[in-house]
Prior knowledge:
By secondary structure, the chain is of the alpha/beta class. It has one domain (about 30-155). The protein is built from two helices and nine strands. It has helices at about 1-20, 135-145; strands spanning about 30-35, 35-40, 50-55, 65, 75-80, 95-100, 110-115, 120-125, 155. Strands 5-8-4-7-3-6-2-1-9 form a nine-stranded mixed β-sheet, with helices on one face. A hairpin with a 2-residue loop joins β1 and β2 (about 35-40). The longest helix is centred in the N-terminal third of the chain and has 20 residues, at about 1-20. The protein starts with a helix and ends with a strand.
Amino acid sequence: MLRFKVLVSVIPLMVAAVLARVELLPGPQPCISIGDEALQITSAPWHADLHVSFTDDPAAATVRVQVADSAEAADFAVVDDVDGSEADTCGVTPATHFVAVSAKASGSAPVVYLSPDGPADYRIFVRSRTFTTREAAALIVGAGRTHLGLAAASL
């Protein structure tokens, strides 16, 4: 009987721990639209089509992303001064690709080195309330890896 009581008291604690890790009602995640498809950051790593990690060591990186000083100097710019319904232009569809930012590099997943200096594979400019520089870098690397055509990217 004591074992049953211990089991009954431990199960709610395990459920609470799992729910604390997973967002019950997640807010809108950063995303970019590319033609009819979209890339979106996900907080659920099991749901991701691509995992991206970051490094402070340029020798360990597989992709270099330069943080540009202006939108004109960037290949990809995120400026979200838009308020209201236009701020979230990405809808989740079957064509949405999900990108997760992982803490550790794994297998063939891209490892990104962010730097204000070149050389770089991509140059980004971020002035946003909803995007971090890392999220923008993860999305641009994801767009390049999924061959969605970066020239058509928009928010």
